[in-house]
Amino acid sequence: MGEIINGKEFAKSLKSDIRKFVEDKKGEGIRVPCLATITIGEDGGSMYYVNNQIKLCKDLGLEPKHFSLDESIKEEELIGLIENLNEDREIDGIMLQLPLPKHIDEKLVSSKISYKKDIDGLTDINLGKFYKGEKAFVPCTARSAIELIKSTGVKIEGKRAVVLGRSNIVGKPVAQLLMNENATVTICHSRTNDLKEICKEADILVVAMGKPQSIGRDYIKEKAIVIDVGTSSVNGKITGDVIFDEAIEVASFVTPVPGGVGAVTTTLLMKNLCEAFEENVY
Ligand code: NAP
User: Model's pTM, two decimal places?
Assistant: First the structure.
């Protein structure tokens, strides 16, 4: 029987580091890190994420500044706001909640966020720097997956790692981060042949397909580490891609859903905010 990798516990220790950081800054008489969040219209999904970000900011002693914009906002007005926030020395991170209304070019507008304030690492500059091995913000979900693997204490170097999914936001950055740790990495996708056989060779299996309950014991090598990034809503319940009860019987470590990767992601975003603050203030 394997062990559960507890994302909530991991996030707790990150949170206490951030609270200490904030207290130290206050002690030095410096302002606290400030996150600007932007939502357009009333998209329920975006509001859920942004409310979580604002709540966590407050909880950690960080300063949230929310901009709730009307659905009818013009593209140039939104770009103007982002450019002002880029210039504002009192703003350290900018989170633009996607998707944007159809009349706004999402790629163009997102690219206007300064890479120094792009704390979720989604701009082309941050992605370019990251894949070139330079210091950059990395998409937080991918980083969360790696941090949870490291939290097991198992050495990543030399291990066979398999990543299921090749999206820009999860699969590709996870694969790159594993490669940075000297794992030997295989990326699989919807056109991969012999998926089961490839997964069976993985010492580390990261699953990010968005196909609920599709990876069971047949896909998992004895004593593997299994990281489930999947979050699908099934009958109103957040559900992972991995059949947890089967995985935990075979693997040495498994992340649950919920309470695994997702429990760490927003806290890592706040950690990145503190790093952006250090660059911005000093
Ligand atoms: P995505 O853009 O839809 O990408 C899914 C990937 O899985 C694609 O590369 C796809 O292959 C691959 N795939 C789909 N079906 C497959 C199959 N049967 N066999 C092998 N590969 C298959 O999704 P995403 O944005 O990367 O997100 C993946 C999951 O992570 C979703 O459940 C999402 O909700 C979740 N997520 C969680 C967090 C968090 O904080 N916990 C954050 C972001 C995302 P092709 O490229 O060939 O289409």
Answer: 0.94
